Amino acid sequence: MKIKSAAFVMSNSKVEKCPNEPLPEYAFIGRSNVGKSSLINMLTDRKGLAKISGRPGKTQLINHFRINDNWFLVDLPGYGYARASKKDKKTFQKYITSYFEQRKQLVCSFVLVDIRHEPQKIDTEFMEWLGENGIPFCIVFTKADKLKPAAIEQKVEAYIQELLMGAWEEAPDHFITSSSKRIGREVVLEFIDGINQQFFKENPR
Ligand code: GTP
Ligand code: MG
């Protein structure tokens, strides 16, 4: 899929105030600093579209980006941001949860995990919560540039095996990406395109 346009639409902390066009929407979620905003910039090929920082906790709100004028990408704050105050964490938690529970346009969420790490409870519990709530998701392994090809394969295999030994009977769809090396761009965009086509077949405009 070609990205012809990518525009920031709005930031807010209330799911009710998100854009109300009936367009398919994809949300990026994961721990702080995992690379959600970087991935959005890589996919759209727009360097400064989503705000990036080496310090965790950069993205603080629900950020909507309209792509090709017919679908949305959503950049969310990270969960598990250690330096946020307890009160801030609670507020984050609440609006992220409401976003996932209430956002009807959400057709697929991408749960980002750093490819170098073993499965972390905060991520696997979040995936289980998505599953229990019937919210479709895929896993996106980020920062693949940090590992050699053989290690990439071994890490992904081990991660998926651990999910299969836990709550999952089937491996969720998963993608290997690197925003700095632009790995995984086409596959993720084609995946989104496939869902978009299905969406517009079922919801003709
Ligand atoms: P929050 O908004 O704080 O939740 O973080 P985020 O998940 O949006 O992460 P962000 O995209 O801001 O990136 C965090 C840091 O990781 C930045 O220093 C990025 O340059 C770096 N980073 C992101 N993606 C990659 C990648 O694919 N490879 C490498 N090597 N670094 C990356
Ligand atoms: Mg961010």
Q: What do you see in this structure?
A:
The protein has 205 residues and is of the alpha/beta class. Helix content is 36%, strand content 20%. The protein is built from five helices and seven strands. It has a seven-stranded mixed sheet with strand order 1-3-4-2-5-6-7, sandwiched between helices. Helix 3 links the parallel strand 5 and strand 6 (137-142). The radius of gyration is 16 Å and the shape is globular. The protein starts with 5 loop residues before the first strand and ends with a helix. The model has no long low-confidence stretch (mean pLDDT 93). The structure holds guanosine-5'-triphosphate and magnesium ion.
